[in-house]
UniProtKB/TrEMBL annotation:
Residues 64-172 form the TonB-dependent receptor plug domain. This is TonB-dependent receptor. Gene3D superfamilies: TonB-dependent receptor, beta-barrel domain, TonB-dependent receptor, plug domain. Keywords: Cell outer membrane, Membrane, Receptor, Signal, TonB box, Transmembrane, Transmembrane beta strand, Transport. Belongs to the TonB-dependent receptor family. It comes from Pseudoalteromonas phenolica. The keyword Membrane applies. InterPro entries: Beta-barrel_TonB, Beta-barrel_TonB_sf, Plug_dom, Plug_dom_sf, TonB-dep_rcpt-like, TonB_rcpt_bac.
Length: 859
């Protein structure tokens, strides 16, 4: 591989100001997807391979970019530096990851929530429908659906660029797939892998293949790739829920008590299958014209059973002499006695879901290059659909409820023990008593786009080229639930018990964090409950929660690329007009809401050579982040069982952010870097979700109603430190640390931190590489962070979380590798607390350790 080392003369502040003022007066602008480097007077050729080659290539991209960019490079097929794309992103300064089910499914970039970062594929938005029915309906492509083998690298743009699609306050992640004309003819790659999950104690297979061809003249290229991965997702949870809607509870002495309303021991057991298909065609029509056609298909099925033993304090009565309270007066331990027949204070809940998601993307690009200008024309479309079937049942002893009494202790991780565990361990003693749902959730998202980009080379001492372009994007997102709930009374008349769907027992749960008294085993239902629901569902379909959001987005930009004696950069302006039509119903009243807004988004990026190896950077710009579809829907989603309602706000304004970067980077050898960057974001029209108890139609009194609203401003400031060193003896180290200070004004006028953001985060990895081995050990840490949107509906804090991963690759031959990887070696758990209730633990999630053994061949 050849890397170029750019060396330029130094600049003066006066010349820099002249560039900025001159470009501003000309109304020119700058972009950041297609970075242009200044003329190179010296070229240094460096031959590297393996891990060092990946690091060198990534640093090369960062070094010669005009904007604030971090990169990750896969130096060869199948050699992406981490198990999946999300794991790799946590090695980037300023990025922390969000794990909900063990795998990374979101990223927090520089003090902004995951939904405020955009994930693009080859520079374009990709339709997405969320993970499953409980997943957020946001605008960012879910990179869990994309196999790492098909990615040649990614760029994370942290500063604003006129040419990049607007929509990200945090960062824009551009995933790049491989192209056939960039590869050797008849390149072939294949791999097979087995994954073992320690909690599930099961092994799952995965395989992938890629073939790339081009003709001798390198005019025509074809690439085809396919991957399929089966995996086990296993989450064990101990959870406490907030106080019930009735408020205080009364014990056997008629004393009012403040207590948690419910608690549970939960097993989320999922069988996941992910498939990814890619077809790329390239044709060089002439010396001036080339055409690229890319098609990608992503499929994800994750059938799962969520089994739980729930304890509801309000269905019983606390024994007065068993009560222990904390300093805030909340009950942390007690014995809850059954209060009579009809309700089961301790009951079994089974939720079966069959999510099936599919996303495809078709992109056609034509590039025309003339002597002093070039033009790119792109048209494309992306469609996504999600279909999730769900059935839910509640089972308990409703005839002799004394057998459903229980003891609980929530002072630490939940302790929950039935008074008569042997009775409740029998499936036949648990009768259907509350619900039998049969629902199909439908989600659809479509994106159609067309754009034209132009570059004009100039004969100028400062402004070297001008870029300009337009883009038109039309997108629609719809969601609804088709309900065919079963007649519970009819099912009860059949005498159904859990024994009719006997799935045996789960045992040995909560081994890492649970205490001795934790409920670690209980009876569960099997998947035959799904067949029963299908056979007994009513023919009539009731549509609920329907909404449709249509958006037409028109954007135009202009940018100026400039360079001079020791400096380079760009200055730009992007203008975006958004027209929205939201359809649906609230309180069963159908309607529609129209909304339009226009945003003017200037940007400036500057890189100055302090010396041959030291670069000073400055960036400033404005951007927007549109509300999620969840927030914008004209719909209300009501859960009568849990007395909650989620109500949309279609008239929301987008977040607006003015942001600034200033940093220094020292490249003291081709694969080494020492850098620091200071960043600031000033955000207006910040959107907050508020939850208030009110009387809501269809939900009743004391319903917890959640709405989103623009409430005020937010400020983010922080510093990123990055160190990467290649010892040139096979060993190397990567380290980054990010400090982030955030505050926002909430709906009560209070100053509070931004949710999902850790103040301190760091990543440390060390590697060794030889002709035979590549070994890496990677450590990730983030301190506590606020999470507002959790199961309890209350503001909560996640404890600090760290994770240790490892990988070993043995090069059997030049063409054959054998690999071993371990994820979450120490089986770390996610712990969520309620500070407003005496720092009581709300939930503990354990994911287990995953091991991967694989082999690959390439020619």
């Amino acid at each position: 591989m050849k890397l170029t080392n750019q060396k330029q003369p130094k600049t003066t502040l006066a010349s820099y100001l002249a560039v900025c003022i001159g470009a501003a007066l000309s109304g020119l602008s700058v972009s950041a997807v297609a970075e242009e480097t200044a003329a190179k007077s010296d070229v240094e050729v460096i031959e590297v391979r393996g891990i060092r080659r990946s690091l060198t290539e990534a640093l090369n991209t960062k070094r010669f970019a005009n904007s604030v960019v971090d990169s990750i490079s896969a130096e060869d097929i199948g050699k992406f530096p981490d198990k999946n794309i999300g794991d790799a992103m946590q090695r980037i300064p300023g990025v922390t990851v969000v794990r909900t089910f063990g795998e990374v499914n979101g990223v927090t970039v520089r003090g902004t929530a995951p939904e405020h970062s955009m994930v693009l594929l080859n520079g374009q938005n990709v339709a997405s429908v969320g993970w499953f029915d409980l997943g957020g309906m946001n605008r960012s492509f879910n990179f869990e659906m994309l196999a790492a083998e098909q990615i040649s690298g990614m760029d994370v743009y942290k500063s604003v660029e006129a040419q990049i699609n607007e929509g990200a306050m945090g960062g824009t992640v551009n995933l790049k797939t491989r192209k056939p004309l960039d590869m050797d003819a008849n390149t072939f790659y294949a791999s097979a892998e087995a994954a073992y999950h320690t909690s599930a104690k099961e092994t799952s297979p995965a395989y992938s293949a890629l073939y790339s061809w081009k003709d001798d003249a390198e005019k025509i290229g074809v690439l085809f790739a396919y991957s399929n991965e089966e995996s086990k997702v296993y989450r064990e949870t101990l959870s406490n829920f907030g106080p019930g809607p009735t408020g205080d509870f009364v014990d056997t002495d008629d004393t009012a008590r403040k207590s948690y309303g419910a608690m549970s021991s939960i097993l989320f057991d999922e069988s996941r299958e992910r498939a990814s298909t890619q077809l790329s065609l390239q044709y060089v029509v002439s010396d001036n014209l080339s055409v690229d056609l890319d098609y990608n298909l992503f499929e994800l099925k994750n059938n799962h059973v969520n089994s739980a033993m729930f304890a509801v304090v309000g269905f019983g009565q606390m024994q007065a002499d068993s009560v222990t309270e904390n300093s805030l007066g909340y009950v942390t331990a007690a014995t809850s006695l059954a209060s009579g027949p009809g309700y089961a204070p301790l009951f079994n809940n089974a939720v079966l879901r069959k999510p099936d998601m599919q996303t495809d993307a078709l992109n056609l690009k034509a590039e025309y290059v003339a002597e002093s200008w070039k033009a790119d024309f792109v048209i494309g479309r992306s469609n996504a659909e999600g279909r999730t079937g769900q059935t839910s049942t509640w089972w308990g002893d409703i005839t002799d409820t004394a057998n459903s009494s229980f003891k609980f202790d929530v002072a630490g991780p939940l302790e929950l023990q039935p008074t008569n565990p042997s009775y409740l361990s029998k499936h036949s003693n648990l009768a259907l008593f509350h619900e039998f749902t049969y629902i199909n959730y439908l989600r659809d998202n479509s994106i159609d786009y067309a754009q034209a980009d132009f570059n004009f080379q100039l004969e100028s001492d400062i402004v070297t080229s001008i870029d300009a372009g337009v883009k038109f994007q039309s997108q629609a997102f719809s969601s609804q639930g088709n309900y065919q709930d079963l007649d519970v009374a009819a099912a009860q008349a059949e005498g159904l018990t859990l024994d009719n769907f006997n799935g045996g027992f789960v045992s040995g749960l909560h081994s890492a964090q649970g205490r001795a008294g934790s409920l670690s085993s209980f009876p569960v239902a099997n998947t035959s409950i799904w067949a029963y629901a299908e056979q007994n569902k009513p023919s009539a379909v009731t549509v609920k929660d329907y909404f449709l959001i249509e958006e037409d987005i028109s954007a135009a930009y202009v940018k100026a690329n400039f360079s001079g004696e020791g400096f380079r950069g760009n200055l730009g302006l992007r203008i975006v007009e958004t027209d929205i039509l939201s359809k649906g119903s609230i309180n069963d009243i159908a309607g529609e809401v129209k909304k339009s807004y226009t945003n003017y988004l200037p940007s400036l990026n500057l890189a100055m050579d302090i010396s041959d190896d030291v670069i000073f950077r400055f960036a400033a710009g404005s951007t927007v982040s549109r509300p999620d579809y969840d927030d914008m829907k004209l719909a209300d989603i009501i859960s009568e069982s849990f007395k909650t309602a989620n109500v949309g706000s279609p008239d929301l304004d987008p977040y607006k952010s003015d942001q600034y970067d200033m940093g220094v980077e020292w490249y003291f050898n081709p694969a080494s870097l020492l850098g620091a960057t200071f960043f600031v974001k000033n955000i207006s029209d910040y959107i907050e979700q508020t939850t208030v108890a009110e009387n809501y139609a269809g939900c009743g009194e004391a319903c917890l109603v959640t709405r989103s609203r623009n409430v005020g401003t937010a400020d983010v400031k922080g510093i990123e430190l990055q160190y990467q060193y290649d010892f040139e003896n096979g060993f190397g180290v990567q380290f980054n640390y990010t400090y982030t200070d955030t505050s926002r004004t909430n709906s009560l006028g209070e100053e509070v931190p931004i949710e999902e953001v850790s103040r301190n985060s760091l990543n440390l990895s060390g590697f060794y590489e030889s002709d035979l081995f590549s070994v890496r050990l990677a450590y990730n840490y983030r301190d506590d962070w606020i999470r507002q949107n959790n199961d309890s509906g209350l503001g909560s804090i996640n404890d600090a979380y760290d994770q240790l991963d490892a990988s070993v690759v043995y090069h059997v031959t030049d063409n054959v590798d054998v690999s071993f990887e371990a994820v979450n070696l120490l089986n770390e758990a996610l712990v969520l607390r309620h500070p407003g209730f005496g720092n009581v633990v709300h939930s503990v999630d354990e994911f287990g350790t995953r091991y991967y053994l694989g082999a690959s061949v390439r020619f």
